[in-house]
Amino acid sequence: MKLISKPLVPLVSQSTLTSRVVLRLLNEIRLIYRKQLRQKLLKELSIFRNEDPSQSTIHMLVCKRDFEMAIISAMIINNLGNKGHYFIFHDDGSIDDEFETRFYEYLPGSKLIRRKIADKIMEEELSIYPALQEYRKKQVLALKLVDIPFFSQSKRIAYIDTDVLFFRYPEEYFQLLDNKTNLNIFNKDIASAYVTDEISIEGNLGIKLLPKINSGLWIMNKKDFSFSMIESWLEHRFLHSYLTDYRLEQTFIAMLASTSDAKTRYFPAGYDVSFEKDPKVSICKHYVGRIRYGYELEGLNYIIKNK
Questions:
Q1: 10 lies in some domain
Q2: For residue 24, is it within any domain?
Q3: In the chain, how many domains are there?
Q4: Among residues 255, 214, 195, which one has the least CA distance to residue 231?
Q5: Model-level pTM?
Q6: Is residue 18 part of a domain?
């Protein structure tokens, strides 16, 4: 049975019972090989300690299901750069003590913020923002909007999704993070994925969005995360029907960037989201949900074979 196609084929719902059963069987087999590849790479990657907690931090929102992916994605950046970067992992509430121990084993000198601790802190901090507090309780992706800027230690915030895999060291990414620019920068998506179209958002909220912003890889200014502004948007009638939409976080990220005094830009084209990108000629690849199986079967397999 062929586990992967080249280029990757996004998973789609199957129309017949037989095809659904075949796809389910294929995915179960894929899970076995995916786990084997993660375990193999974890044994081969070098461990680097972050010795400088004052350096720019890289944030990741993590869950138990994708925790090994998060560790590997971070370790690969360390291995490509031949040094320990400072990662802050934000627990979505599913991380247990065993995984916390593994985090500090593989990424010494970095930091994991458990959800139960963050909840206690943010309950007080968000007391004057009831709508935002409720949104954070109900939507895990809201942690990107609230916890990451709150716990960030620097004026410039770097964020990477756990399913973004680098094949060469992202020089441009760190240059844009560490230099004196105040640009808000994102990787460019295949298509716009906001709660509704940009014309409707501009017509109802007066905010002109840059299309195709993807919130899986970005650098933003901490000052541009305005809790009071997000609170006002959450209370706006136009957005009430979208409060449970998982794309609301990405929409708010784009809105915050668009209302900032700073300019909004995309990363260079090599960072774009694409199903067809070839690891051999790519800086990185974002293995979004529909091609998530390719993170290991394409990406890690390529890294293992090419050391």
A1: no
A2: no
A3: 1
A4: 255
A5: 0.93
A6: no
